[in-house]
Specification:
The complex is a heterodimer of chains A (290) and B (382). By secondary structure, chain A is mainly alpha-helical. A three-stranded antiparallel β-sheet of chain B has the order 1-2-3. Chain B has a three-stranded antiparallel β-sheet with strand order 6-7-8. Chain B is globular, with a radius of gyration of 21 Å. Helices cover 47% and strands 14% of the residues of chain B. Chain B is built from 15 helices and eight strands. With 382 residues, chain B is α+β, with helices and mostly antiparallel strands. The chains are: A mainly alpha (290), B alpha+beta (382).
Chain lengths: 290, 382
């Protein structure tokens, strides 16, 4: 009963944890770039400012107006499964894949329904990359679930699968870089080319939800990667894994420039092939589980 | 595919100064480019006119924030030619040192900016950190970090003390190793190579047709360097190479500027070694009644040209041709057919500096308008 309450409390505090993680990410970035950087609570200040800002939008499209809220809700729903399953049911990993696609879909919808050419270009780029990275994510997660021998993500919790599935682990880490729009795959958020990407036309509370959801997506991958790689058997290993995932993502952003969209697609295609090879290996039963 | 017009600028993260590029897109590809300038037209030539030479020098040095010494130096070269004035060896060497320090500062600023354009903010921060050392030197020698105002007709405002000579050499030593590392990173990083190689290619023929100058021309195989063609200060007595590369893409332009930084370091080291112990002459107000002269120097972006005509002790006509003015038109040609992702890279790779180049405004669309100078002044009240 106590653990149930703790899980619910954890679920409710997800936005706050996401904001702290974003602050830590900025601090790590500053550390790599020899800057002092903003305080860890800076994202709180940013969001507080956005919450109180006037909304100035010249677009009455209902998709444009509502996409940020659905983007937020679909992303929040991901935390029903990750890291603790609040809704214990079989085949929850399919629900997870469905939600990630839905979340990315609302992000694209927000851009396409906007009038700005910058938002539309950014949404188009995101759509091009989505074709690849959602497949990679799905194939990698399927590989992990099949190898763990269960029907749900909770079955993974008791395994260390990082060494059994090295290629799928690599593909998963790579795809988290793409999903979070971190260099070298941040073409959809390339500031000099498309300004603030799909968020260009948003302001006030809608922009608040877009920003908060971006932070939550970052947290989601920071929680997902160590869960699939190391499981939940050792909480210490899990927390350390999450911490290193965050550092790794920051390091990726700090140490690489940005691909152009066609180059990003080519690299992603390569990652997709790696994930598929691992999937075929899993299906043919050539995997040794630790 | 979606076809629309994407405005890059006047305010855009891709441009650090105002300019409008209207890009007609077909998907991600640029079909045609319409370029608008004139957002920072200040009427600088008008400001120079009607002032005496000593007053005008302050205006000239403020035309550009990045190459302030180049403008000062070009102005002084023109006036000294007009007066047939000889300057002593120490003044010449100190001017050369400052001139090359400014080139290093400008190239590092540009290189950092270029890295930011391709999303490599870490290298951008590192390059600008090195540039801080040069700015500190300027503060120590000239008293200012940006608008230095150190040159005087026939002399300098301040001399360099032996301590400052050591500071200069120490700064260069500490910078050299790090810059080599950064250069290696640019050469070897896979993503940088993919983003810059073969992008914004300018052939030698095109470069000649569009009258390219400075590092952009040298990256396309044209040996064009005022320091060698028409030496001034101590350049005739110093050993240095003019770096010329043939490929003419964004990668070559980046590497060329990085190599020029090392060349400038060599020039500064030679100058510091050659500094004689004589004193710099005291400066006084310029007494010049009549005269007409031209002068040019090799600013960090290319040839900077000045024409001055003095009548009754006042400047009657001033003409300043900045390097960007000479090559900005080529953007319309090389941006056609490229991907939208390459546009910021190509624009940045030319190293444009808008606020010092804007001269005359042609604001009419589809209609040419011819005006006399008086009509133009009346109409735009400048």
């Amino acid at each position: 009963m106590l653990s149930e309450i703790l899980r619910i409390v954890f679920f409710l505090t997800i936005p706050i944890i996401a904001i702290v993680f974003e602050g830590m990410h900025r601090k790590f970035m500053a550390m790599f770039q020899h800057r002092i950087g903003p305080p860890v609570v800076q994202p709180f200040y940013d969001l507080r400012k956005l919450w109180h800002k006037q909304t100035l939008e010249d677009n009455n499209d209902p998709f444009f107006k509502n996409a940020p809220f659905f983007y937020f809700l679909s992303t929040y729903a991901l935390f029903l499964i990750i890291p603790f399953s609040l809704l214990a049911f079989d085949y929850d990993f399919i629900f997870l894949i469905y939600l990630t696609i839905l979340s990315s879909g609302f992000y694209v919808l927000a851009g396409v329904s906007s009038d700005s050419p910058f938002s539309i270009t950014a949404a188009m780029r995101e759509m091009v990359l989505m074709v690849c990275y959602e497949v990679v994510l799905a194939v990698s997660v399927f590989s992990f679930v099949i190898v763990s021998g269960g029907l749900s993500l909770s079955s993974i919790s008791s395994h260390y699968l990082a060494f059994s599935l090295p290629l799928a682990s690599f593909a998963l880490i790579a795809v988290s870089v793409v999903e979070l729009k971190i260099t070298p795959f941040d073409t959809a958020e390339a500031e000099p080319e498309v300004l603030t990407s799909v968020e260009t036309e948003y302001s006030g509370r809608r922009l608040f939800f877009m920003e908060l959801t971006n932070y939550m997506r970052r947290l989601f991958y920071v929680l997902l990667v160590p869960l699939l790689l190391f499981g939940l058997r050792s909480p210490f290993l899990y927390v350390t894994g999450g911490f290193f995932t965050l550092i790794g993502l920051s390091l990726s952003q700090a140490s690489t420039p940005r691909y152009r969209v066609d180059q990003a697609f080519k690299s992603l295609f390569f990652i997709m092939i790696i994930a598929l090879i691992e999937f075929i290996r899993v299906l043919s039963g050539l995997v040794w589980v630790f | 595919m979606h076809d629309f017009v994407m405005p890059v600028g006047p305010q855009s993260p891709a441009l650090k100064e105002p300019m409008l590029l209207k890009l007609k897109l077909e998907g991600e590809e640029v079909r045609s480019v319409d370029m608008r300038l004139g957002y920072t037209h200040k009427g600088v030539e008008g400001l120079l006119e009607g002032k005496n030479v000593d007053q005008a020098m302050y205006v000239a040095s403020r035309i550009c924030g990045i190459c302030s010494i180049s403008h000062e130096r070009a102005f002084i070269r023109t006036v000294e030619d007009m007066m047939k004035k000889e300057v002593n060896e120490r003044v010449k060497l100190i001017r050369t040192i400052l001139f090359e320090l400014e080139r290093i500062s400008s190239h590092l600023l540009w290189a950092g900016f270029m890295m930011h354009e391709i999303g490599f903010d870490t290298l951008f921060q590192y390059l600008w950190r090195e540039r801080e050392g040069v700015l500190d030197l300027f503060e120590s020698i000239c008293g200012n970090r940006v608008h230095k105002n150190i040159c005087k007709i026939g002399s300098l405002r301040y001399d360099i003390a032996p301590v400052q000579e050591r500071e200069v050499l120490d700064c260069l030593d500490s910078m050299q190793e790090k810059l080599k590392d950064y250069e290696d990173e640019i050469k070897k990083n896979k993503v940088i190579k993919e983003r810059l190689k073969g992008v914004g290619k300018i052939s030698k023929k095109t470069a000649i047709e569009y009258g390219l100058i400075g590092p952009n021309a040298r990256a396309s195989g044209i040996d064009n360097d005022v320091r060698r063609i028409d030496p001034y200060d101590s350049y005739a007595d110093i050993n240095f190479k003019t770096i010329v590369i043939k490929k003419g893409d964004a990668m070559e332009r980046t590497l060329l500027r990085m190599r020029e930084v090392h060349e400038s370091m060599g020039i500064i080291r030679q100058c510091v070694e050659m500094l004689p112990s004589e004193k710099i002459p005291k400066f006084s107000l310029t007494n010049i009644k009549e005269g007409e002269a031209i002068g040019r120097v090799e600013a960090p972006r290319g040839e900077l040209f000045y024409f001055l005509k003095v009548e009754d002790g006042l400047i009657r006509r001033a003409k300043v041709r900045t390097p960007t003015f000479a090559f900005i038109k080529i953007l319309e040609k090389i941006l056609k057919g490229v991907k939208i992702g390459d546009v910021p890279v190509i624009v940045a790779s030319l190293d444009p500096c808008f606020s010092c180049m804007e001269r005359v405004l042609v604001a009419k669309e589809d209609r040419e308008e011819w005006m006399t100078e008086a009509e133009f002044r009346r109409k735009y009240s400048c």
